[in-house]
Amino acid sequence: xxxxxxxxxxxKLNIFETTMQRAISLQINKYPEILKTITxxxxxxxxxxxxxxxxxxxxxxxxxxxxxxxxRNKYPNFPSALIQCARDNAIEMLNGNKYKxxxxxxxxxxxxxxxxxxxxxxxxxxxxxxxxxxxxxxxxNIPNYFAKYFxxxxxxxxxxxxxxxxxxxxxxxxxLPKQAINQEVLGIDLGINNFAVLSNKTFIKPKHIRNIKxxxxxxxxxxxxxxxxxxxxxxxxLSGRERRxxxxxxxxxxxxxxxxxxxxxxxxGLKGIRxxxxxxxxxxxxSNWAYFQFRQFLTYKAExxxxxxxxxxxxxxxxxxxxxxxxxxxxRNKGAFHCTTCSFHNxxxxxxxxxxxxxxxxxxxxxxxxxxxxxxxxxxxxxxSDTPEFSHKLHxxxxxxxxxxxxxxxxxxx
Length: 414
Ligand SMILES: [Zn+2]
Description:
Layout: E1 10-13, E2 19-28, H1 32-55, H2 60-74, H3 80-96, E3 111-113, E4 118-121, E5 126-131, E6 134-139, E7 153-161, E8 166-175, E9 185-190, E10 196-198, E11 202-204, H4 207-226, H5 229-258, E12 264-268, H6 279-287, H7 289-304, E13 308-312, E14 332-333, E15 336-338, E16 345-347, H8 348-370, H9 408-413
Parallel strand pairs: 9-12, 12-13
Antiparallel strand pairs: 1-13, 2-8, 3-7, 4-5, 5-6, 7-8, 9-10, 10-11, 14-15, 15-16
Helix pairs in contact: 1-2, 1-3, 2-3, 4-5, 5-7
The chain binds zinc ion.
């Protein structure tokens, strides 16, 4: 047994949460007073960042004392409540990159309002904004499909500049439907060879995705080496197209997975992994926003229908044998998994996804013990079956002569 395998940890488990947040994107016309407010706001944020570097502080109080008067005098029309928003925004940006970089906002970066400076009435479609010309009212055009959010609480409003219009993002908060904890947990391993492998032996390896990604990579390479202005423009539109394509794919895939007969889904999470032990999974996931987006989509689609999601600590999920629990680097050889103790054979991605589902199950069981309010619905688990529409390819399971078979609980608690 390997050191470092202590009790399984989770990074996020949504059954403890009682509320959920959603973002509603709306568009409004480019009113000149709003554009001016945005420009000044971003200038003020930048001045705060510069000052914060000068004073070597991230204290709101100190920054306020140092800059507030000066800012008021410099921008007499700028609403004071928005100066506070700008200050908080600056400090968050600095905290976000741990004071390593002297980041600056662009003139047209998005700006954030709080509940004092912006009011949104979704039902009547009204927006009240504090601008440099005072409080203004605007009419919002809210599509019908947002009707379910009309009763939710508005938490924050951000405003960004688009090519043609202003992009208004309203963060609303509502009650999370009661999460069912199905004893059957579907483990999902996001990887390089396969976009995703599910613990029910489903391999999601869309050929067209790989081909399209390759094509984009090829086109990008050519354009980058050209370096002309029109090449740069072309690059930008290309990345937009690729983004939209992946977005659509992620929507479809997460919808399909969420509708499977499982009450809970387990995936690898990243947050909370300590420095220096991030490893390959971390790098792979961070460099690929598509995985991140997939997780986001899956989580919110699951929440909507009362299913739960757990993000687990990704360490050792690819090295551990899902049959006997022995974890070692030598178990894995690229795409193939071969346990050196019990000679269990499998695809390494499938092995990882089974590990993920086992760990997820333990975490859910713990959660039920620690939080008796949470209900389980065991009845659903017996319904589970593999969806026939997915093809699956599996290495034959070999070698059940496992002399040292450890239950996963024994291993992960040791
Ligand atoms: Zn084994």
